[in-house]
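pls design
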C-alpha cells in the first residue's frame, strides 16, 4: 500500500479524511447534496454538512458538493477554520496573494493557529489559495490542527541484530539508527 503524498486530493477524499479526523457521528436526516449520491464518500460528505463544515460548492444554491473536483488550498482553509472552530478573526493579513478573496480570513485564521505556514518558504507570505492540495499538504495541515497529534512521535525502533561474516569468521554486530537520523551506525559487539 502507498500513501502517494504528491497526489492531488478530491473534495470527496478530503471529506473522508476530515470526517475521520473529527470523529463525526453518522449523519441523520435528508440527503443534503444532489451530486454525492452513490459516491463512496457520501456518508463523510453528509457528516461534514451536518457538522456545518461545508455548505456546498455552487453558491447560492449549494445543492452540490462537487466530490470529484480537486480541493484547493483556499477551500481547505475554509474547511479547517470551520471544523476546528477557529472563530477568532485574525487582525493580521498574513498573505499577499489572497486579498479580498472569500477564503482570506480562513487562511489568516489557520496561519494564526499554526496549521499552515504558507507556500513559499522561507518568506511564507503567500498562501497559494488556488493551488490544488496534495495529500502531503493535507496530512501536514491535519496533523497540525489535531490537538496533541503534532507532538506525537513514532515509537523507538529496537536495534537490528546482524551477524557479519568475514573470511569465515563470524562476529555479531548491531545496526542502530540514532533518533532523527536516516543513517545506520554499525558497531561491533563483543571481542
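designed seq:
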Amino acid at each position: 500500500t502507498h500513501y502517494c503524498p504528491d497526489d492531488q486530493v478530491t473534495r470527496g477524499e478530503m471529506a473522508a479524511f476530515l470526517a475521520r479526523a473529527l470523529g463525526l457521528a453518522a449523519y441523520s436526516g435528508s440527503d443534503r447534496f444532489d451530486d454525492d449520491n452513490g459516491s463512496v464518500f457520501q456518508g463523510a460528505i453528509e457528516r461534514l454538512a451536518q457538522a456545518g463544515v461545508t455548505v456546498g460548492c455552487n453558491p447560492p444554491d449549494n445543492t452540490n458538493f462537487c466530490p470529484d473536483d480537486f480541493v484547493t488550498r483556499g477551500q481547505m482553509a475554509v474547511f479547517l477554520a470551520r471544523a476546528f472552530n477557529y472563530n477568532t478573526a485574525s487582525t493580521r493579513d498574513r498573505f499577499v496573494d489572497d486579498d479580498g478573496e472569500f477564503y482570506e480570513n480562513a487562511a489568516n485564521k489557520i496561519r494564526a493557529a499554526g496549521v499552515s505556514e504558507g507556500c513559499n518558504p522561507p518568506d511564507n507570505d503567500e498562501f497559494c489559495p488556488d493551488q490544488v492540495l496534495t495529500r502531503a499538504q493535507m496530512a501536514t495541515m491535519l496533523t497540525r490542527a489535531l490537538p496533541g497529534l503534532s507532538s506525537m512521535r513514532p515509537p523507538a525502533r529496537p536495534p537490528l541484530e546482524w551477524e557479519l561474516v568475514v573470511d569465515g569468521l563470524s562476529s555479531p554486530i548491531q545496526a542502530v539508527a540514532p533518533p532523527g537520523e536516516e543513517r545506520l551506525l554499525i558497531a561491533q559487539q563483543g571481542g
